[in-house]
Amino acid sequence: MARTVYYFDAGRGISGDMVVAALLDLSQDKKGLEKILAALPLKGAQIQIGRVNSHGIEATDFDVRLPKPAHEHEAGHAHMHRNLADVESVIDAAPLSERAAELAKKIFRIVAEAEARVHGKSVSDVHFHEVGALDSIADIVSAAYLIDQLGMEQIAFSPLAEGTGSVMCQHGWLPVPVPAVAEIARAYRVPLRFLEEQGEHVTPTGIAIAAALANTQKPEQATITAVGVGAGKRDFGQPNILRVFQLTTKEEK
Fold it and tell me: Are 216 and 31 in contact (CB under 8 A)?
């Protein structure tokens, strides 16, 4: 009996925009995704979808560009401080299926729980910074929509490739993997494979998506029926891509 498994090859890292780009490359549902994004309250945001070449590999690029506020305390800066209830209200504003909406909320809850443990707060007191920004909301809602549209049920992930060193974020310079990534990896037993390359290869949004989706193992033998390739935004001197394979395998009864 045939079985379809979607396999995320995260051997070069994973982030929210890379997941969306790879799924969009797989589904080719640009118009549907643009309709969903248009319904979100992403004031001033510009969504760009195109093709890029990452060190010789052609890939789809998904980019959310936000206007920079003239002053730190203007409304454009407020999106950096949303709690989970605020984020869920934004998700509820999108015309998503019940499954897609619940998946988007699940991904954010995974991040909120990790941030709460890292900072010694309750989940309701966690105020999102990078992950709460409008671009990450767009990433997570887009990923949930495309996963639902593709009818993805059985999903497997490779070990997530992480870098080394440190990265600047809202809390200053943090070691890689950043605390939220390390906590999600611990809590959900997400395997990490450490590279010698400097820099963050796995973002909190990326590993939260993996934690929310992974429910099976990569089959030992399978036929590749489709491939989606999504580009990241960083240059590590090698292709910064995420691949999603649609695999078909026959299993004995």
Answer: no
The helix/strand/coil state of 247 is strand
Strands 160-164 and 192-198: parallel
CA–CA dist 192, 150 (Å, integer): 27
Rounded to 10°, the helix 84-92/98-119 angle is 170
pTM listed for this prediction: 0.90
CB 12 within 8 A of CB 230: no
Please provide the DSSP assignment of 191-236 as one string: -EEEEEEES--B-HHHHHHHHHH--S---SS-EEEEEEEEE-S---
The number of residues making up the chain comes to: 253
Q: How many Å apart are CA 141 and CA 28, to the nearest integer?
A: 17
Task: List all residues 6 or more positions away from 26 whose beta carbon is below 8 Å from its beta carbon.
Answer: 146, 150, 226, 227, 228, 244, 246
User: Per-residue pLDDT tens for 26-77?
Assistant: 999 999 999 999 988 877 678 899 999 999 999 999 998 876 654 444 444 4
Q: Which of 99, 183, 161, 89 is nearest to 132 (CA)?
A: 89
Q: How far apart are CA 100 and CA 146, in angstroms?
A: 8
* Helices 16-27, 204-213: inter-axial angle, 10-degree rounding: 50
User: Helix/strand/coil (H, E, C) string of 21-81?
Assistant: HHHHHHHCCHHHHHHHHHCCCCCCCEEEEEEEEECCEEEEEEEEECCCCCCCCCHHHHCCC
